[in-house]
Design goal:
By secondary structure, this protein is α/β, with parallel strands linked by helices. The chain is built from six helices and five strands. The longest helix is centred in the middle third of the chain and has 17 residues. The radius of gyration is 15 Å and the shape is globular.
Length: 162
């Protein structure tokens, strides 16, 4: 069984994320979407990591070979523990590539048996980010074209209470 890890902060998960996850689920036998703690984004999030896990679970419930998990540690260590053959990352623009490339090389050094695969985001989601969703929702904008319908109310409720 070929397993891939699809890591990210997912705060919240967007339709761009779901696009990449869905495509990865067609390539691999199992995809584990993993909410990782990101030290660079400390104290900037809307949802706690375990809340993000639940939002993703709601959003991918139609994909039988996708699991959702949380991990606080090195991605390479997690991927090895899960016997993954690949790490799947989405790229929106060239600006994403530089950072992702550095991470991929680091992960390859830490876990040489695991490859990183980049999925170019569908063009309709290239502009989309979790921070954009949070901003639009904070000011009462319509986020229905940006996130799965299953989690719109969760995002609105959390935004109103913060």
């Amino acid at each position: 069984m070929k397993t891939a890890i699809c890591p990210g902060s997912f705060d919240p998960v967007t339709l761009g994320h779901i696009d990449v996850i869905t495509r990865a689920a067609k390539v691999f036998d199992k995809v584990i979407v993993t909410v990782l703690y990101n030290a660079k984004k400390r104290n900037t999030g809307l949802f706690e990591p375990l809340e993000r896990v639940e939002l993703i679970r709601k959003s991918v419930s139609h994909l039988p070979n996708v699991e959702v998990d949380f991990y606080d540690g090195l991605l390479a260590d997690y991927a090895m523990k899960k016997n993954a053959v690949a790490i799947v990352k989405g790229l929106r623009a060239v600006s994403d590539y530089e950072d992702e490339f550095q991470q991929a090389l680091t992960n390859k050094r830490l876990a040489p048996q695991i490859d990183t695969m980049f999925f170019v985001t569908n063009s309709e989601y290239m502009f989309l980010s979790s921070s954009l969703v949070r901003e639009v929702c904070r000011y009462g904008g319509d986020i229905s074209a940006f996130v799965p319908s299953e989690i719109i109310e969760d995002i609105k409720l959390k935004t109103m209470n913060n």
